[in-house]
Amino acid sequence: MSAFEDTWHWGLESEKALQEIAASPIAPAPVKDFISVLPRLVGKRTDMAAYLTMMCIRLIELRRVLKDTGSIYLHCDPTASHYLKLLMDTIFGASNFRNEIVWQRTFAHADARQGSRHFGRVHDVLLRYTKTDKFIWNQQYMPYDQEYVDTYYKYVDEQGRRYWKDNLTAAKPGGDTRYEWKGKLPPPGRYWAYSKANMERLEAEGRIVYSSTGMPMYKRYLDEMPGKPVQDMWDDIRGLGGLGAHKLERLGYATQKPEALLERIIESSSNEGGIVLDPFCGCGTAIVAAQRLNRKWIGIDITHLAIGLMKWRLKNMTPVPSFKVVGEPEDLAGAVELASQNKYQFQWWAVHAIGGQPYGEKKKGADTGIDGYLYYMDEKDKIKKAIVSVKGGRNANVSMIRDLGHVIDREKSDIGVFISLEKPTRPMLEEAAMKGFYHSPLGKDYPRIQILTIEDILSGKTPDIPPWIAPITKPAPSKKAKGTAIKLL
User: Fold this and answer.
1) What is the pTM of this model?
2) What's the pLDDT at 111?
3) Do the domain assignments include residue 54?
4) According to the model, what pLDDT value does residue 237 have?
């Protein structure tokens, strides 16, 4: 869906951002220098220039609000990562660069077909910066490779626990570490790794075994080890394309990331009770992960399509006791203003307001008469959908009701819902009544065409449809305790 795509084009907004950066009292001088030479690097008024300019002004603000103990992770693809790294060096300081993480999101890619003249493009980049050297860091671990386990943890004790015979000597002395142990001394230039008292304790605990030469060895159990420290190459978390364990997370959002990816980032760089901010929140994966990991969170997005999807996800997939949405219409005046500003944003908001799901591309001249669907099931294993049509103008008329009737016939749908800013006229009500009723297998009749005004919706009225369910998307299993949400912008 085009509303989900990250598209940047040069225009008045980009020109304004350039001026704001130049005049900003908090933009470092290197940032202004970088932006001044940007046109020579990527071309004047190109899409890349627009993207970098808009990212620049946002990153300046993000550095301002970032805590001294915080980290920022910026996800990008290899076409922009080198420019963004230069930009972030100027904003956060090159000394605060921590990692360039390569995320292998897929095993293989079809763009490496014969004749493509390039290797398969299977990775994205995560740039990690901090504000100071006081940043929070929680080392993350991965399971050991089986080959490593078989090579080093090849011994098994009487309880079935695997262990490794580890060296009990050290290169430097540390107190009482030069003594004879059961007739053995450390090799020349080496010392025992533990004092004699600690060696006796380990012996009593059964943690010492002996080599064929009689040298003591430490019994290091596999089940006591945290695992292999995560490196800057992440090849164990797949994207949401294709088949696999992540498929139950899919919401149809083009830039959606797997929850495991965001969980690793959040666990690495924050503690429970801390605040996670995602200023490009999209479908809300970051705030869902933060919620499960006992963090507070703020999510920001500018489209009501994304906000509606986040609300649905927080209510249905990861139930949250309460959260606050800032910026949605709360009364008729707000709805009228939204409709006048952007009719598609208004349509997305209205569809979500009745519990529906927006439908299709939103492009000029591509109106199919369908703005969304309401899903329900009144027969076993048969999901049905009511057609939703939204009109935000001041010219609602009977022909629109007639058109909706044609659409539900064409789509073989039983119910159509018409949402309007204006109250319906008498001819509109009569035309809707002429469409008759849908007789549900559950034994109840429902009007085939139903008309709701925005005032109706704001007062809590909902369409009269059979028991409905959301599109089939099962909630991901909760792995952590729930956190406390603060607000969703």
Assistant:
1) 0.77
2) 66
3) no
4) 92
Distance CA 342, CA 363 (A): 12
Q: At which of 224, 244, 267 does a domain end?
A: 224
| Residue segments in the chain with a per-residue pLDDT below the cut of 50 | 1-5, 364-365, 469-489
Domain harbouring 408, CATH code: 3.40.1350.10
The 3-state secondary structure of the chain, one letter per residue: CHHHCCCCCCCHHHHHHHHHHHHCCCCCHHHHHHHHHHHHHHCCCCHHHHHHHHHHHHHHHHHHHCCCCCEEEEEECCCCHHHHHHHHHHHHCHHHEEEEEEEECCCCCHHHCCCCCCCCCCEEEEEEEECCCCCCCCCCEECCCHHHHHHHCCEECCCCCEEEEEECEECCCCCCCCCCECCECCCCCCEECCCHHHHHHHHHCCCEEECCCCCEEEEEEHHHCCCEECCCEECCCCCCCCCCHHHHHCCCCCCCCCHHHHHHHHHHHCCCCCEEEECCCCCCHHHHHHHHCCCEEEECCCCHHHHHHHHHHHHHCCCCCCCCECCCCCCHHHHHHHHHHCHHHHHHHHHHHCCCEECCCCCCCCCCCCCEEEEEEEECCEEEEEEEEEECCCCCCHHHHHHHHHHHHHCCCCCEEEEECCCCCHHHHHHHHHCCEEECCCCCEEECEEEEEHHHHHCCCCCCCCCCCCCCCCCCCCCCCCCCCCEEC
Cα(476)–Cα(314) distance, rounded to whole angstroms?
A: 12
pLDDT > 90: percent of the chain: 62
Q: Which residues pair with 299 in a beta bridge?
A: 278, 488
- Total number of domains in the chain: 2
Q: Could you report the per-residue pLDDT of 385-398, keeping only the tens digit for each?
A: 999 999 988 788 99
Evaluate whether residue 264 is within a structural domain.
no
- Structure confidence at residue 155 (pLDDT): 96
**153 in any annotated domain:** yes
Question: What rounded mean pLDDT belongs to the chain?
Answer: 87
Residue 111 lies in a domain: no
Residue span of the structural domain in which 439 resides: 354-458
State the Cα–Cα distance between residues 231 and 101, nearest whole angstrom: 8
Nearest Cα neighbor of 288 from 322, 325, 313 is 313
Q: What value, to the nearest 5°, has the Cα angle with vertex 230 and ends 229 and 233? A: 140
CB atoms inside a 10 Å sphere around CB 106:
17
Domain end call among 201, 224, 247: 224
What does the alpha-carbon distance between residue 135 and residue 92 come to, in Å, rounded to a whole number? 13
